[in-house]
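Worked example (supplementary).
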Amino acid sequence: MSHRDTLRALTAARPNSLDPTEAADPALIMAYPQEKTVTRTARRPVGRLVLAAGLPAVALAVTGAILLNNQSGQAPTAQPSAPPASTAAELPTDAGGVLLVAAQRSESTPATTGRYWVIRRGHGENSRPGVEEEQWLATVQGLPSSGYFRNADGSWTARPMQDHSAANNFLLAGSPRTVAELAALPTDPALLRKKLLTWYDGKDGEAEGGDVYLFHAGMGLVIDLPVPPRVRAAAYRMLAALPGMTSLGPVTDQHGRAGIAIGLTRQGDFGKSQARLIVDRTTGQALARESWVGNRAASWTVLLGARWADGPLPQASTLN
Amino acid sequence: MTPGDPNGRFTAIYHRHHRQVYAYAVSRAGRTLADDVVADTFLVAWRRLEAVPEGPLPWLLGVARNVIRERFRDDIRQASIAAELRAWAVEADADVADGVADRATMLAALAGLGDDDREALTLTAWQGLSAKDAARVVGCSSATFFVRLHRARKRLEQAMVASPVERRRPVRLTAQESSR
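After joint prediction of all chains, the assembly is encoded as:
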């Protein structure tokens, strides 16, 4: 074997574990001050802690979330099909059934919109304490966006997201999409799947498989992104139809809220790794996403609220 | 994208190179530490964006290299990379579908090399860096890197011959080799 053959064979032997399992998002990093503009006091180590805890967990999407008991969720006007009377015992526990219930509940939510998509989330990783963050993400070009981080004493600190704009605030499986693009997504699961796959570059040698791509895109749509309820419902249905989705049964998320976990397992190098979506069994709302490696949650994000607002950006002191 | 658009520039750099930085972090520190390494590396890149050169990959990998060295105690890194290397061998051995019979042998041989040899080889074969760029990552001259790569390659070839991997099916590697 020549030397060149050796290197070529080594290239061919490249392990799959060198590829990240999730498309990450740079927005949290850009929430931190840059060195040229920063004062000494602003360059505290807390920034690194927050980043380390938050970044892998955020992974897919900077932005947005499902409607968690916000105003629109409490307005079931003219939605006789929404059956709040169901008891938990009647609800499905299989992965497809849980997702289809979630789809139905999403559909019964009226569509709203606003100049800002406001999302509050908790992030954690490994054994580090979690951090809580709220983002005000502009949906209209020209408006500023801002992140807010909760301090240990419960107060909030604003971290303006420099030059973040409506054009790059919302990432769908790693690529920025405008709110208009998201709103125009198909409401039929098969068409949604087809549309998403047009954005998937399967020829990129490092890309994951199409189903994994669809899983991550779908997770973003049901959890984070500001999409109309009917698009979210289609995303739930698309997820339900993906191969390999399994129900993991009743769980509690990292904030102690009860839900049903649905997982997609990949055979990794240290055993199995699993991406989990936790859905409230009675409301069908997404509660959390978790990434499990072996028998522990390597990273997690809980959704604490998401809503539309018209701004302006609030002062950190006004958040609670 | 204008020079006055740091977010645009950073986002482009991030999306273009994030996977490569992750791959380097895994190959150098193991998967358990890789996310932290990537996060810290890009935080440095963001904070010092004006210092990031065009064609930033060697610069980024150099930062990642320092992050790994400074942030993690050596025994933690060693444990993590040891687990990673074992996992490569297991994975390659289990992967009978792709028909690449010498993968397991190759990865086992690579696992047996020292950190420096493995780094020189993977920067070249997996990151696709030229000797000049790889030299920038590890902080030596191109000529020195060439020598390092040459020696590492020889040791890899020796290890592949010297330590046949126990496997569940016949290996065609030797036959292929002798036919050349």
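Two points are worth noting when inspecting this output. DSSP finds eight helices and eleven strands in chain A. The longest strand of chain A covers residues 296-309.
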